[in-house]
């Protein structure tokens, strides 16, 4: 099945239903799952809890892999989660076009699962960092960034100890040339990532991973100042309404 | 050879190493009297840890009673002192439970693990009340910033709190960081946790119902923190391999996260009769306390305790402080459902015994009875000491050394910049940026705000229906308490109370961590007695009860104790969390108003400390009626939406409060001082004061409100511009303030 037909059949399935259904995965040690589900609900979507031990994606339209310390980050961040029963379903579906967003530990898991290139290593200064970070949206054509303008500057929190994106030179060149660098840090790189990379996508643009946390920038009262993270959720929901 | 009850009866005169276990000979004699024979080595292990200062509060008990006898009437108090943590009613069917606890000594020995397990321990206390832990805070004290050992201890402590708390998924929303040479060799690591629960879901540490199962769940038991038991082991068994055990426990935050989610599911399924966390004194403490508060008896097969190290001896199992363990009492009907939930979360759980009505705690080891005691004698009937105390020899001279003799500056601009860059007033971002303040998505305010504020909505199913929020602050000033422990404790409470009120929250209840030197030193004991008396009296005036806390003694090097350091945490409630007030100049064009009167008060001040290295005189006057009025005015003003910003005036005085307010949002301001002495106006540390910002059109209404509360109110000027200007005194660009404020800690810890 081609990526396009996989996406279409999902969308056709979706048309007879109500709001778009976004799966939010909980591994042992996942921390930001409640926050991700809340952000989906606030945007008008239905958040569907997905459990690491189930081989069942429950027919969701898209999947959010939230942050945390799945399996305690033992061995390497994301290295154990990659083998969770749920991932056996998720990996082929993502390759077939299912939109997947991984933030923080979710990004690390996507890299460990080889759904995204590169790896995330210990922050350059060896300290965990939690701060409000300016981010440049470089690619506004992915499944998760359609609601942003290319070149738009947004403010999102980062909070991680292993967020330093690295890849070999050829991979970085290919990512740069292919427009797969979706986000870059502005005003100071918090972790020493190559070329200030904050997030990348696969070639098809349905899989996006980033270290910052859009789910913590969707309400005025809580989280980082502003609501710049809302675009991720409106992007993915609109995609299913409009298609 | 196992030292069984049978063997103990047969060998009544066998010498036992009670002194090495920290037990006095009269205490040992009392154990023999209780049992009518010599204790077995396992029983000796239990009594020695349960009767230790740490577990029995034997030196502090007679004083701590005042928190009960002097307690103000409070409708909000649901569970008071004596349980794992106090619980208060916060409205709409919700309750909050919170407590602060020390992990000072382990954090000096092994900073990372000491601090990490301090967080883990207090989080389990909160869980054992039936609550979901929702945030942590920490109050830290270190030696001088430039002391070599501070560079060893501080980064490790911060990393321990960061790695454990972040991995647990609990936002860290505030706390304190203070440097003073008195803490060199005795850093203070006080960790606070707050949890939320439905009012009708409170759990207690009790084991009622004969036939109910006793389940040990969580991490397996290993040789952690059993320095004491090794004395027993080597003395009784002459086994060298057991003599060198790690003294500090090692934490696994991943297991703790699983335990939290597992416990919440167990509570939700209503399959828990009683629950207790395993902290200090591990299985000894959990079994004796659960049994003592329940039907009265319990039978435990220690051989069933899952071990990480199979060579552990029963005495070591009893004393092990392995982390991430809980004990629950479960009915036989619910045990399968209980085990299924544990399996779902990959949490090992083992039935190790059951509740009995015999009035005895009986433990077996390979079919031999090794413990047979009335549990209450270990849990509740420990020794109580009326330790002698008297005023320290130099106290009068210290109080007579009034800072009025100190040379006062003429260049107030550089005084302000020097203070802003001094270790205690400089930005703590180097530390706080290592803590996740956003996780769980309910953080409304966090550091550097005066108090941490959390939304209650969406914490658990059903919570969406409340608009309420909670606010928490901790404060403590060791220099004030050194000058006058009675007033110092009151000032600590007053500041935390004020810090909660400036966010718009109504202060409700108090927790405390009392850090002192050795109780065997009558001068330290005097400091302790005075501090407790002062705090209890102040709680009564302010109408906020103490719900629990912790005492940490023996914080001293040789015969030199730390400054007496009562750290006080206050919890408050916002009826509508959307009305919370931020601490800075949020916009230009707002009227800047000072609330409260300023006197010439520099005893124990930051200025005297930074400019002269001086500590003497008396601390600021603790005017509790004025604090109460100020808080009342602040809370009503917030509820009515009359104020835009609000910030406590304390360490470093008005000058620092104004600078911090300008730094918060990068908005400057222009003020005219109300008094005649600019130095006093700017740097005095008079209590019961706050700086607020008000829209000009609402100023009259606000002034009227202040008059009604009898709170002095001085219009100082307006927010706006890119600098802080004090008319006729100084002007400093906000960027220059920021540079002074930001560089101090990174200069030390990033070099």
Automatic annotation (TrEMBL), chain B:
<dbReference type="Pfam" id="PF18072">
    <property type="entry name" value="FGAR-AT_linker"/>
</dbReference>
<dbReference type="InterPro" id="IPR010918">
    <property type="entry name" value="PurM-like_C_dom"/>
</dbReference>
<feature type="domain" description="PurM-like N-terminal">
    <location>
        <begin position="450"/>
        <end position="573"/>
    </location>
</feature>
<feature type="binding site">
    <location>
        <position position="512"/>
    </location>
    <ligand>
        <name>ATP</name>
    </ligand>
</feature>
<feature type="binding site">
    <location>
        <begin position="321"/>
        <end position="323"/>
    </location>
    <ligand>
        <name>substrate</name>
    </ligand>
</feature>
<feature type="binding site">
    <location>
        <begin position="102"/>
        <end position="105"/>
    </location>
    <ligand>
        <name>substrate</name>
    </ligand>
</feature>
<feature type="domain" description="PurM-like C-terminal">
    <location>
        <begin position="209"/>
        <end position="365"/>
    </location>
</feature>
<feature type="binding site">
    <location>
        <position position="552"/>
    </location>
    <ligand>
        <name>substrate</name>
    </ligand>
</feature>
<feature type="domain" description="PurM-like C-terminal">
    <location>
        <begin position="588"/>
        <end position="718"/>
    </location>
</feature>
<feature type="binding site">
    <location>
        <position position="124"/>
    </location>
    <ligand>
        <name>substrate</name>
    </ligand>
</feature>
<dbReference type="InterPro" id="IPR041609">
    <property type="entry name" value="PurL_linker"/>
</dbReference>
<comment type="function">
    <text>Part of the phosphoribosylformylglycinamidine synthase complex involved in the purines biosynthetic pathway. Catalyzes the ATP-dependent conversion of formylglycinamide ribonucleotide (FGAR) and glutamine to yield formylglycinamidine ribonucleotide (FGAM) and glutamate. The FGAM synthase complex is composed of three subunits. PurQ produces an ammonia molecule by converting glutamine to glutamate. PurL transfers the ammonia molecule to FGAR to form FGAM in an ATP-dependent manner.</text>
</comment>
<dbReference type="GO" id="GO:0004642">
    <property type="term" value="F:phosphoribosylformylglycinamidine synthase activity"/>
</dbReference>
<dbReference type="InterPro" id="IPR036676">
    <property type="entry name" value="PurM-like_C_sf"/>
</dbReference>
<feature type="binding site">
    <location>
        <position position="57"/>
    </location>
    <ligand>
        <name>ATP</name>
    </ligand>
</feature>
<feature type="binding site">
    <location>
        <position position="549"/>
    </location>
    <ligand>
        <name>ATP</name>
    </ligand>
</feature>
<dbReference type="Pfam" id="PF00586">
    <property type="entry name" value="AIRS"/>
</dbReference>
<dbReference type="Pfam" id="PF02769">
    <property type="entry name" value="AIRS_C"/>
</dbReference>
<keyword id="KW-0479">Metal-binding</keyword>
<protein>
    <recommendedName>
        <fullName>Phosphoribosylformylglycinamidine synthase subunit PurL</fullName>
        <ecNumber>6.3.5.3</ecNumber>
    </recommendedName>
</protein>
<dbReference type="InterPro" id="IPR036921">
    <property type="entry name" value="PurM-like_N_sf"/>
</dbReference>
<keyword id="KW-0067">ATP-binding</keyword>
<feature type="active site">
    <location>
        <position position="54"/>
    </location>
</feature>
<feature type="binding site">
    <location>
        <position position="277"/>
    </location>
    <ligand>
        <name>Mg(2+) 2</name>
    </ligand>
</feature>
<feature type="binding site">
    <location>
        <position position="99"/>
    </location>
    <ligand>
        <name>ATP</name>
    </ligand>
</feature>
<feature type="binding site">
    <location>
        <position position="550"/>
    </location>
    <ligand>
        <name>Mg(2+) 1</name>
    </ligand>
</feature>
<keyword id="KW-0436">Ligase</keyword>
<feature type="binding site">
    <location>
        <position position="249"/>
    </location>
    <ligand>
        <name>substrate</name>
    </ligand>
</feature>
<feature type="binding site">
    <location>
        <position position="101"/>
    </location>
    <ligand>
        <name>Mg(2+) 1</name>
    </ligand>
</feature>
<feature type="domain" description="PurM-like N-terminal">
    <location>
        <begin position="82"/>
        <end position="196"/>
    </location>
</feature>
<keyword id="KW-0658">Purine biosynthesis</keyword>
<comment type="similarity">
    <text>Belongs to the FGAMS family.</text>
</comment>
<keyword id="KW-0460">Magnesium</keyword>
<dbReference type="InterPro" id="IPR010074">
    <property type="entry name" value="PRibForGlyAmidine_synth_PurL"/>
</dbReference>
<comment type="pathway">
    <text>Purine metabolism; IMP biosynthesis via de novo pathway; 5-amino-1-(5-phospho-D-ribosyl)imidazole from N(2)-formyl-N(1)-(5-phospho-D-ribosyl)glycinamide: step 1/2.</text>
</comment>
<feature type="active site" description="Proton acceptor">
    <location>
        <position position="103"/>
    </location>
</feature>
<keyword id="KW-0963">Cytoplasm</keyword>
<keyword id="KW-0547">Nucleotide-binding</keyword>
<feature type="domain" description="Phosphoribosylformylglycinamidine synthase linker">
    <location>
        <begin position="16"/>
        <end position="58"/>
    </location>
</feature>
<dbReference type="InterPro" id="IPR016188">
    <property type="entry name" value="PurM-like_N"/>
</dbReference>
<feature type="region of interest" description="Disordered">
    <location>
        <begin position="1"/>
        <end position="20"/>
    </location>
</feature>
<feature type="binding site">
    <location>
        <position position="125"/>
    </location>
    <ligand>
        <name>Mg(2+) 2</name>
    </ligand>
</feature>
């Amino acid at each position: 099945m081609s990526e396009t037909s996989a996406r279409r059949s999902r969308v056709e399935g979706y048309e007879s239903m109500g709001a778009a259904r976004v799966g939010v995965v909980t591994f042992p040690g996942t921390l930001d799952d409640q926050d991700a589900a809340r952000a989906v609900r606030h945007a008008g979507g239905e958040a569907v809890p997905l459990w690491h031990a189930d081989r069942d994606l429950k027919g969701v339209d898209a999947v959010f892999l939230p942050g945390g310390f799945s399996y305690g980050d033992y061995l390497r961040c994301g290295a154990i989660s990659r083998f969770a029963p749920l991932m056996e379903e998720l990996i082929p579906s993502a390759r077939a076009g299912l939109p997947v967003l991984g933030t923080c530990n979710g990004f690390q898991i996507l890299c460990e699962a080889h759904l995204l290139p590169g790896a995330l290593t210990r922050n350059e200064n060896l300290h965990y960092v939690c701060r409000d970070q300016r981010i440049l949206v470089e690619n506004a054509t992915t499944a998760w960034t359609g609601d942003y303008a290319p070149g738009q500057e947004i403010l999102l929190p980062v909070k991680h100890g292993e967020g330093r994106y690295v890849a070999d030179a050829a991979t970085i060149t290919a990512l740069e040339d292919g427009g797969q660098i979706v986000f870059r840090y502005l005003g100071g790189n918090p972790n020493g990532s190559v070329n200030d990379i904050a997030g990348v996508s696969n070639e098809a643009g349905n899989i996006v991973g980033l270290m910052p946390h859009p789910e913590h920038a969707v309400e005025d009262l809580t989280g980082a100042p502003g609501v710049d993270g809302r675009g991720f959720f409106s992007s993915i929901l609109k995609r299913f309404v409009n298609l | 050879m196992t030292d069984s009850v049978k063997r103990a009866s047969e060998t009544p005169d066998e010498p036992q190493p009670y002194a090495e276990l920290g037990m006095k000979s009269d205490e040992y004699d009392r154990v023999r009297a209780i049992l009518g024979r010599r204790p077995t080595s396992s029983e000796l292990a239990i009594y020695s840890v349960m009767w230790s200062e740490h577990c029995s509060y034997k030196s502090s008990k007679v004083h701590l009673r005042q928190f009960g006898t002097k307690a103000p009437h409070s409708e909000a108090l649901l569970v008071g002192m004596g349980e794992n943590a106090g619980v208060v009613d916060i409205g709409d069917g919700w309750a909050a439970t919170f407590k602060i606890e020390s992990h000072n000594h382990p954090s000096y020995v092994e900073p990372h693990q000491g601090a990490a397990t301090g967080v883990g321990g207090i989080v389990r206390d909160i869980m054992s009340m039936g609550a979901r832990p929702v945030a942590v805070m920490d109050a830290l004290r270190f030696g001088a910033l430039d002391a070599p050992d501070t560079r060893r201890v501080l980064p490790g402590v911060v990393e321990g709190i960061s790695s454990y708390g972040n991995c647990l998924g609990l936002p860290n929303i505030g706390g304190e960081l203070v440097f003073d040479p008195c803490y060199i060799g005795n850093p203070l690591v006080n960790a606070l946790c707050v949890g939320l629960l439905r009012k009708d879901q409170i759990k207690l540490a009790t084991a009622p119902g004969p036939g109910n199962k006793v389940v040990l769940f969580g991490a397996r038991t290993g040789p952690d923190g059993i320095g004491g038991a090794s004395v027993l082991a080597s003395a009784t068994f002459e086994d060298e391999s057991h003599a060198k055990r790690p003294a500090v426990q090692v934490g696994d935050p991943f297991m703790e996260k699983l335990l939290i989610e597992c416990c919440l599911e167990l509570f939700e399924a209503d399959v828990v009769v009683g629950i207790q966390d395993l902290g200090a004194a591990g299985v000894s403490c959990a079994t004796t306390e659960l049994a003592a508060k329940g039907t009265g008896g319990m039978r435990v097969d220690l051989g069933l305790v899952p071990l990480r190290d199979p060579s552990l001896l029963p005495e070591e199992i009893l004393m092990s402080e392995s982390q991430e363990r809980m004990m629950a009492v479960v009915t036989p009907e619910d045990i399968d459902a209980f085990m299924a939930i544990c399996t779902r979360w990959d949490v090992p759980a083992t039935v190790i015994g059951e509740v009995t009505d015999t009035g005895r705690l009986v433990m077996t080891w390979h079919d031999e009875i090794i413990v047979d005691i009335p549990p209450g004698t270990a849990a509740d009937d420990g020794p109580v000491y009326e330790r002698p105390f008297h005023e320290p020899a130099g106290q009068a001279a210290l109080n007579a050394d009034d800072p009025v003799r100190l040379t006062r500056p003429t260049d107030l601009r550089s005084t302000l910049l020097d203070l802003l860059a001094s270790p205690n007033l400089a930005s703590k971002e180097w530390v706080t940026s290592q803590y996740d303040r956003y996780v769980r998505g309910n953080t409304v305010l966090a550091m550097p705000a005066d108090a941490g504020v959390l939304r209650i909505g969406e914490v658990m199913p059903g919570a969406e229906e409340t608009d309420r929020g909670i606010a928490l602050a901790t404060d403590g000033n060791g220099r004030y308490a050194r000058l006058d422990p009675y007033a110092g404790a009151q000032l600590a409470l007053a500041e935390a109370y004020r810090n909660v009120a400036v966010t718009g929250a109504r202060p409700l209840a108090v927790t405390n961590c009392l850090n002192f030197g050795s109780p065997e030193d009558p001068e330290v004991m005097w400091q302790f007695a005075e501090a407790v008396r002062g705090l209890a009296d102040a709680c009564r005036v302010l109408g906020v009860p103490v719900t629990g806390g912790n005492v940490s003694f023996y914080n001293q090097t040789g015969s030199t104790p730390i400054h007496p350091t009562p750290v006080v945490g206050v919890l408050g409630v916002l009826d509508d969390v959307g009305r919370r007030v931020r601490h800075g100049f949020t916009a230009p064009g707002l009227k800047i108003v000072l609330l409260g009167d300023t006197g010439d008060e520099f005893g124990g001040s930051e200025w005297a400390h930074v400019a002269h290295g001086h500590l003497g005189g008396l601390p600021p006057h603790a005017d509790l009626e004025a604090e109460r009025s100020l808080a009342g005015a602040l809370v009503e003003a917030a509820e009515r939406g009359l104020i835009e910003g609000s910030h406590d005036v304390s360490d470093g005085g008005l000058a620092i409060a104004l600078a911090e307010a300008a730094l918060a949002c990068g908005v400057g301001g222009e003020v005219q001082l109300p008094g005649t002495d600019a130095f006093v106006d700017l740097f005095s540390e008079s209590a019961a004061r706050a700086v607020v910002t008000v829209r000009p059109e609402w100023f009259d209404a606000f002034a009227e409100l202040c008059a009604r509360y009898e709170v002095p109110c001085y219009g100082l000027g307006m927010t706006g511009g890119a600098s802080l200007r004090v008319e006729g005194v100084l002007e400093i660009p906000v960027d220059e303030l920021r540079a002074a404020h930001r560089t101090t800690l990174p200069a030390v810890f990033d070099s």
